[in-house]
Specification:
The chain is an alpha/beta fold and 576 residues long. 31% of the residues lie in helices and 16% in strands. The protein has 19 helices and 21 strands. It has helices at 6-9, 17-20, 31-36, 38-44, 79-91, 110-115, 172-188, 216-225, 229-243, 252-264, 295-298, 305-320, 341-344, 351-364, 393-404, 410-420, 460-465, 470-482, 485-489, and strands spanning 12-15, 48-51, 95-101, 129-130, 138-139, 143-144, 146-149, 154-157, 192-196, 271-274, 291-292, 330-332, 368-372, 491-495, 502-508, 513-519, 525-527, 539-545, 553-555, 559-561, 566-572. The strands form five sheets. An eight-stranded parallel β-sheet has the order 11-10-9-3-2-1-13-12. Strands 14-15-16-21-18-19 form a six-stranded antiparallel β-sheet. Strand 14 and strand 15 (502-508) form a beta hairpin. The chain starts with 5 loop residues before the first helix and ends with a strand. 48% of the residues are buried. It binds alpha-D-glucopyranose.
């Protein structure tokens, strides 16, 4: 039971550096700010950080367009600031993994600048070049996937924005150069990588066109307007069909194996987690990625007991199919690419209660949890109202396209853009009720507006002081998790799996049996677990209750669970 690796027992916390903490008061997050907040993170109880890209970048895709893989964006600090951050994190027993963007670079990266300069320069085939666009492939961010370069009189391919040209991974020199960058940070002592968009690294060698009767812009617009289940189903099918030849193509397993061999050549159990939900990228369980995300859990409009049971049954079964190694799940409900948990899974009536259930879910299910900065204080989506505020370039591209090419009224276009852009879930972290939420000094224009709800208690400082705040709830749950071995190591056993109102399960080790009940309903429930084999007539010793922790012992037969209660108990013999 104690043989789990650190990345299996850790709780990860994603830092979006631009929005986390502004140490030098220029309106943009930076390493100085992050270092100042490390005590906060240690106190919160997280064990590892995933840092979204911190490299120099022209920021067409908020850092995911990297112009130098071995340096630090000047607005975030210097390499020495990074080293201090890493060192200070490690001193607090907090590990750090970085974001590794393999598929593409920035168009301002020296490799691309050279590659595009002529057809016969030494890096001429470091990217994917064609004399004419060979097909109708789309960029998932901004229209056509092929962009013309006059210097070469050729087109290059980009799955994402045109400022993010795809590298040619068939070229061994590309690999060598990228593996050097990977080693650069591992040599400095980082604990691993989150691998960005790995599915996009290779394309169909036959360049088969897609057959969706729309462009990307039209499909996004269709998606905006889709309201019936049939329309939504068609939308999903179209998205899949549009990109199926640009995604998940041959070659990836070999590539992941090479990368794994590099990380394994370092001491200290460095780890890799893929931005993909396909368990195949874990190889045989020991030779590709350590983890992939359980994205199907979050790909739903509502987190319901039914959805979770189904997800767990499928996911854990898939993991079992790995031949070797650690068949370990990895769960998350939010990140920098999607609507914030509080907004997305709320019902507008019980958002606060639901947020607590969702946190409990991620922190008690089997697997490594990933949290996203700000979720611990209940940050919500922030809807921009003016196109000049939009920083997520896919948002401004969409706005201009639907206004100019489809005649959509600017007001409606702005509403749609505010909903689809990822700016809404990337606003500055709310540290206090000071102006600018204590993120930046008063009167400084922050890079994205601060959500004004910081003044209504959605900020760290107020919540630290309030015993019943969401923040203290997270802290408490993280402590319970840490001090309850079965919540980390235990096998998952669903119970009452047809229940519609609540989600119940056991986490079981040889020495400990934990029952978790999450009541997703506004009803008080009277439950009977006495006929469950692993529970029967034992007692339930409360480890955590969001409703009434004063009741130390509860019966398995007539168990009252309050509306939206999170209940975690140890199942023990009646006389223990
Ligand atoms: C990943 C990142 C996303 C980025 C894209 C292109 O999906 O999470 O933020 O835009 O890759 O790098």
């Amino acid at each position: 039971m104690n043989s789990l690796k650190w990345w299996q027992t850790a709780v990860f916390y994603q830092i979006y550096p631009r929005s986390f903490a502004d140490g030098n008061g220029d309106g943009i997050g930076d390493f100085k700010g992050i270092v100042e907040k490390l005590d906060y993170l240690a106190d919160l109880g997280v064990d590892a950080l995933w840092l979204s890209p911190h490299f120099p970048s022209p920021n067409w895709d908020c850092g995911y367009d990297i112009s130098d893989y071995c340096n630090v964006a000047p607005e975030y600090g210097t390499l020495d600031d990074f080293k201090l951050f890493l060192d200070e994190s490690h001193k607090r027993n907090i590990r750090v993994i970085l974001d590794l963007v393999l598929n593409h670079t920035s168009d301002e990266h020296a490799w691309f600048v050279e590659s595009k300069s002529s057809r016969d320069n030494p890096k001429a085939d470091w990217y994917v070049w064609m004399d004419t666009p060979p097909n109708n492939w789309q960029s998932c961010f901004d229209g056509e996937a092929w962009t013309y370069v006059p210097e070469r009189d050729q087109y290059y391919y980009h799955y994402f924005m045109k400022q993010q040209p795809d590298l040619n991974w068939h070229n061994p020199k590309v690999k060598e150069a990228m593996w050097d960058a990977v080693r650069f940070w591992l040599d400095l002592g980082v604990d691993g990588y989150r691998l960005d968009a790995i599915g996009t690294i290779y394309e169909d060698p036959n360049l088969t066109p897609h057959e969706v009767p729309m462009t990307m812009a039209e499909l996004r617009r269709y998606s905006d307007l889709a309201s019936t289940p049939e329309e939504k189903e068609l939308r999903d099918k179209y998205f899949y069909d549009m990109f199926k030849n640009q995604w998940a193509q041959g070659g990836l397993h070999e590539l992941m194996k090479e990368l794994r061999a590099i990380t394994d050549s370092y001491d200290g159990d460095r780890m890799l987690v893929g931005e993909d939900d396909n368990i195949d990228y874990m190889g045989n369980g020991e030779d590709e990625l350590h983890l992939v995300f359980n994205f199907p859990l979050m790909k739903t409009e509502r987190i319901t007991p039914e959805h979770i049971h189904k997800n767990q049954a499928e996911r854990l079964k898939q993991l079992e199919s790995l031949h070797l190694g650690n068949k370990w799940p990895c769960n998350t409900l939010g990140n920098h690419d999607c609507s914030r948990i509080h907004t997305r899974y709320g019902d507008k009536l019980h958002d606060a209660e639901l947020a607590r259930l969702h946190a409990a879910l991620v922190l008690t299910m089997k697997g490594t949890p990933f949290l996203y900065n700000g979720e611990e204080i209940g940050m919500t989506d922030y809807m921009l109202t003016d196109i000049s505020q939009v920083k997520d370039t896919m948002g401004s591209w969409y706005y201009h396209t639907i206004v100019t090419e489809m005649g959509v009224h600017p007001e409606e276009a702005m509403t749609r853009t505010a909903e689809m852009t990822r700016d809404k879930n990337r606003t500055p972290m709310q540290w206090s009720k000071q102006p600018n939420a204590g993120f930046s000094p008063e009167n400084i224009a922050t890079w994205l507006p601060v959500n004004s709800n910081y003044a209504d208690g959605i900020n760290v400082k107020d919540q630290i002081q309030s015993p019943y705040s969401l923040l203290n709830y997270y802290k408490h749950l993280l402590k319970v998790r840490k001090s309850t071995p079965a919540l980390i190591h235990g096998e998952y056993i669903p119970v009452h799996s047809t229940a519609k109102d609540y989600f119940a399960f056991l986490r079981v080790t040889e020495k400990q049996k934990i029952l978790v009940i999450l009541n997703f309903s506004s009803e008080r429930l009277e439950l009977d677990f006495s006929n469950i084999k692993d529970i029967n007539s034992q007692t339930l010793q409360t480890l955590f209750s969001s409703a009434d922790a004063s009741q130390k012992e509860r019966s398995t037969k007539a168990l009252t669970i309050n509306p939206f209660e999170v209940f975690i108990a140890e199942v023990k013999p009646a006389h223990a």
